[in-house]
Amino acid sequence: MKKYLFPTLTIVCLMIGFLIGNAVSNKVNAQRFYIQNGQLFQQPESKIDQVLDLIQAGYVDPINVDSITEEVTKEVIKRLDPHSAYIPKEDLEMVNSELSASFSGIGIQFSIQNDTVQVVSVISGGPCEGMGVLAGDKIVMVNDSNFTGKTITNEKVMHALRGPKGTEVKIGIARSGTDEVLDFTITRGDIPVHSVDAKFIIEARGNKAKGDEAVKIGFIRVSRFAEKTYDEFISALATLKGQGATSYIIDLRENSGGFMDQAIKMANEFLSRGDMIVYSEGRAYPRYEARATGSGRFQREKFVVLIDNFSASASEIFAGAMQDNDRATIIGRRSFGKGLVQQQIPFADGSAVRLTVARYYTPSGRCIQKPYRLGEQEDYAMDLLDRYESGEFFSADSVHYSDSTVYYTKQGRPVMGGGGIMPDMFVGRDTTLYTPYFNIVSNRAYTYQFAYQYTNKHRAELSKYKDWQSLEKHLLKANWVPEFVAFAKEKGVEPNAEQLAISRPLLVRVVNAYIVRNILNDEGFFPLFERDDDIVKQAVKYLTE
What we know:
There is one protein chain. With about 550 residues, the chain is α+β, with helices and mostly antiparallel strands. It has 4 domains: about 1-80, no CATH class; about 100-190, Pdz3 Domain, CATH 2.30.42.10; about 195-430, 2-enoyl-CoA Hydratase, Chain A, domain 1; about 435-540, no CATH class. Helices cover about 35% and strands about 25% of the residues. The chain is built from 18 helices and 23 strands. Strands 5, 6, 7, 8, 9 and 10 form a 6-stranded antiparallel sheet that branches. A 6-stranded mixed sheet has the order 12-13-14-17-18-23, with helices on both faces. A hairpin with a 2-residue loop joins strand 7 and strand 8 (about 145). Helix 16 runs antiparallel to helix 17. About 35% of the residues are buried.
């Protein structure tokens, strides 16, 4: 039966695309009537409506028209740009929660290891805190049903543990040193979603010519642009300034974007009144300009912005505004190149479509969006791999622009368009410490798995340390590397003494950082993990010159 429907579905796909575009432009009359030259006319029924009516009324076999519509909608969205997306009803809540200020659940961070859900940490202020659930516990039962095995996925865990606030979920816990399964009934509650992963002070020495005085640099990592990102960011800035910071590093690496208004609010803190932040426009989307109000509290502070190949969308808006207004130095590697604006349109059945309605432009007029062809998502997704293989991650000379147009910043510095933000100071990836041995154990997540197992084995001892510096000193003395080599060998990775000697400093830093995170969360993880990062070191050097 499906083969007879295929030509019809193809036509349906094309027609739905036109209808969606018209609906978003707000040019379609919601009623089936329009006025022209003072006369009332009835709008003709669209072909898609006619086709569906014909199928429903006269097709030889009973057909679920709703299911056809669902599949057709998915197909037509695939034929648009890579960032337009159809979101089924069952996925919408989870997708929206990624950028919301909170969601309802039990309040744990988890990891799936050996087909078992393991509690990495209990979120402070969440429902599980004070209930007796501990880091290192294994969730083996949910609502009296077995919850282990190869069918357990991150999505299945979140679906089971998340739910409306005030509802209950029963979990069974397996705990080291206890033979019986421990039962806990948890009432779901609000779990905060943070977008500022870390804030801390980097202490450095200033330029010798200026007295080699001590300098305090505030480091802020923003992982996404969610509902409360601006509030978290301002709070972090205030905290670091209170701790003596005189300059700042704003880390937007691997930040894939989110709400544009949050990036605009952040940019406003650093720019003078009237400075352009971003503008956007589309075929049916009127030009919108965002300019600084002059109310920003950090208009004079010196700072840099870190970006990489995975910084996208709202991250690029912020970085582009700082670069084009000559307000901050951008350090790192060329950003992703997502300059399309999506609008989420809900449907009556609880699903939604995120439709691209406009492009956004930096103050100099650059469209950050990298090239794409309609309906070719796979080629688009391979772009980063192509950039990696071309050498772009390692050398600025390997960066190729699709648009040769030169744009100019507020002070007349030339900047390039054609896809992404090119940093003012390029820092290529350093692969000196990367060997095949390290790549294997890292790519297979053995570094993460070992860190978790090591933490559980020594949790009582490790928990005595309240800051990352003292915990790292303890871990360096512990010399767990031979234990790791044995662990990796059990997983099928044969040891290589020569390669291990080369990668040892990197291996130690990464695993120690994971162990610290298991004990002290991200506030302990990032200062250690970023300490020897080449981009961060370049930023510190620039700010202390």
